[in-house]
Amino acid sequence: MADLTIGDLADRTGLAVSAIRFYETHGIVHPLRNAGGHRRYGRADLRRLSFAMIAQKLGFSLAEIAAHMRHLPAHRAPDRADWQRISRYFRDQIDDRIAALTALRENLDGCIGCGCLSLDRCAIWNPDDRAAAHGPGPRHLLGDKPVSDSASNPAQLS
Amino acid sequence: MADLTIGDLADRTGLAVSAIRFYETHGIVHPLRNAGGHRRYGRADLRRLSFAMIAQKLGFSLAEIAAHMRHLPAHRAPDRADWQRISRYFRDQIDDRIAALTALRENLDGCIGCGCLSLDRCAIWNPDDRAAAHGPGPRHLLGDKPVSDSASNPAQLS
DNA sequence: GTAATTCCTCAAGCGCACTTTAGATCAAGA
DNA sequence: TCTTGATCTAAAGTGCGCTTGAGGAATTAC
Q1: What pLDDT digit, counting tens, does each position of A113-130 carry?
Q2: Which residue on chain A is closest to B123 by alpha carbon?
Q3: CB B11 to CB A136 under 8 A?
Q4: Under a CB-based contact definition with an 8 Å cutoff, are residues B18 and B50 in contact?
Q5: A111 in contact with B at a CB cutoff of 8 Å?
């Protein structure tokens, strides 16, 4: 059940041994110990690390990832319902990301097409003009939806 | 031509004054100085900062952003060709991002549908099995295309 | 003219995500 | 058994992207 060493995990995930130990301090994995005090991992920990790596790529901090991991059982293997719940949450985040990037690309396309990037009257590049109502800077173009806040402050998602 | 104070830029971009000074040390902006030694910015600097903010959201480091900015004229306003060139580069990056996220979402969708996240035979969550040929860990799912390398090592883009 | 505000430089500090180092212990193969 | 390699802990160091603070000078508002 818990027969993998930290080196095994490192080989299989591509993470450094030191990184796995660091993740443990953040509650991503919860290894048992053998008689000699060495960490021993189960296969569930492989999936936890994989998931954490993906979530990190999506821009989540270790603290946020750990918060979602806390809803998974610590030592027994997560079941279908466990993974479906957490997977759906992250899929929604991916959807948001794609939508934001698509909007950004469309704005850039418009600017490339009309060459307005060098013109003072461009609403996108001169936020103090007609776009000023949306707030300062290019934030309206960026969607102004910081990842770190989206979970705790869904009101910003509008 | 160069009549904006650092406070003006902060107000218009939403950046902190300290951040703008920090960006200057990285070559993102190049203010002139007035008789009293205070920085004076032109409108081109507003666009540079806006562009830097967008590029940062895309995951580029300040060093990378500055590298692309170096191809823009320092004090004269960038013309249409300048912005088209740099905009196109970043739009391609956005395309790559969207493609990677879409692939990731499709994989997650498959796992949510079949519930295989808890099964040992899942190719995505058990990279040491049939997906092992693609390298260790969930990297094949992630596309394994670190942003920081993509500019200097285009071969990885395949 | 004076007071409040903004700006200046330089150095240090911070949060995140790790890595590195040191000295010691544990595990596994010849 | 012995030796080599993996692992252990704790503390310090690293790189990025800034912020904060101190001490002082310039600018702006009244």
Answers
A1: 544 443 344 444 444 433
A2: A47
A3: yes
A4: no
A5: yes
